């Protein structure tokens, strides 16, 4: 069994980005600039945005964070989005999800300029991705593609099963791997909470991508021997073995599934570190105007 090390891969990609940023500065171009809008005080969102800020600093990308109180109105958020759309200094920006219930997430996402939508959630970017046109691909699927490329995972003609149909991971992943491209050219089955006989389907998978949000859902008897397993899930469980009193696990029973898999991502240290790096890659594309929308 080979471990697909997202932490190490992310470190390598960051070094490549830092070199590219340095080259841009040598050519008298400005530093790429990524902004983030954070509404409210959701702990997971705060941690994620802080991680993005730290990663930007490591590679030389300017980072701006707009922290807004929970009570901020939808109108005020939309006004800030419009300001960022027009600000020539900002190359790309994200609005951190989830937003408070009184703000319509779809309305906010659709108000972001597609050319600055480095999260890849705007319908224009999703549509262009489906048509295999240049677009910003959302960070987690993009991170998985990067891992597949870096580990030379063969996808052409392979049976891929994706568990989970979210707009953030599962659905885009199924589209990306069925496109005529590399990674891609696979035969993809998308499963979800209403799929019957999931075990029969997953046992046929050469590549199994799990993004269900259910701790330890995939067990050893659901996996074909020699399959490649990508675990997107992340859950905190109590642990007496750590100082913090908890540890992180995924949607896959790693201990047992890893005995059958030929390659597998760990949790933590697999897909997670690649998500932030993918956002940096999208910011670089935006700064260099590689994608015209």
Q: How much helix is in the residues?
A: 25-40%
Strands, total number: 11
Distance between the termini: 42 Å
Looking at the structure, the CATH topology of the largest domain is Rossmann fold
CATH C-level class of the largest domain is Alpha Beta
* Strand order in space, largest sheet: 1-11-8-7-5-6
- Structural class from helices and strands? alpha/beta
Instruction: Give the topology string: H per helix, E per strand.
Output: EHEHEHEHHHEHEHEEEEHEH
CATH architecture of the largest domain: 3-Layer(aba) Sandwich
Domain tally: 2
Shape: globular
Tally of alpha and pi helices: 10
Quaternary structure state of the chains depicted? single chain
Estimate the strand proportion. Answer: 15-25%
Kindly provide the radius of gyration, computed on alpha-carbon positions and rounded to a whole number of angstroms. 19 Å
Indicate the mean pLDDT.
95
Residue runs with pLDDT of under 50 for 5 or more positions: none
| CATH superfamily caption of the largest domain | NAD(P)-binding Rossmann-like Domain
Main β-sheet: number of strands, strand sense, barrel status? 6 strands, parallel
């Amino acid at each position: 069994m080979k471990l697909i090390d997202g932490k190490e891969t992310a470190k390598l990609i960051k070094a490549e980005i830092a070199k590219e940023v340095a080259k841009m500065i040598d050519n008298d171009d400005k530093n790429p600039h990524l902004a983030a809008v954070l509404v409210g005080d959701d702990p997971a969102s705060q941690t994620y945005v802080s991680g993005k800020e730290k990663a930007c600093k490591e590679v030389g990308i300017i980072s701006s964070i707009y922290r807004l109180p929970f009570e901020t109105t939808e109108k005020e958020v939309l006004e800030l989005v419009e300001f960022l759309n027009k600000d020539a200094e900002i190359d790309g920006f994200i609005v951190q999800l989830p937003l408070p219930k009184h703000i319509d997430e779809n309305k906010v996402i659709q108000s972001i300029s597609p050319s600055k939508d480095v999260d890849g959630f705007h319908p224009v970017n999703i549509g262009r991705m489906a048509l295999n046109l240049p677009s910003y691909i959302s960070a987690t699927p993009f991170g998985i593609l990067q891992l597949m490329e870096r580990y030379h995972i063969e996808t052409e003609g392979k049976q891929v099963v994706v568990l989970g149909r979210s707009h953030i991971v599962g659905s885009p992943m199924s589209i990306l791997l069925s496109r005529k491209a590399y990674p891609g050219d696979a035969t993809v089955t998308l499963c979800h909470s209403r799929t019957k006989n999931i075990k029969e389907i997953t046992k046929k998978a050469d590549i199994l991508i799990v993004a269900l949000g259910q701790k330890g859902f995939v067990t050893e008897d659901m996996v074909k021997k020699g399959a490649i397993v990508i675990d997107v899930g992340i859950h905190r469980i109590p642990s007496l073995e750590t100082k913090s009193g908890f540890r992180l696990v995924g949607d896959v029973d790693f201990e047992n599934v890893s005995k059958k898999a030929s390659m597998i991502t760990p949790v933590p240290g697999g897909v997670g570190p690649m998500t932030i790096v993918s956002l940096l890659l999208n910011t670089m594309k935006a700064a260099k105007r590689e994608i015209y929308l």
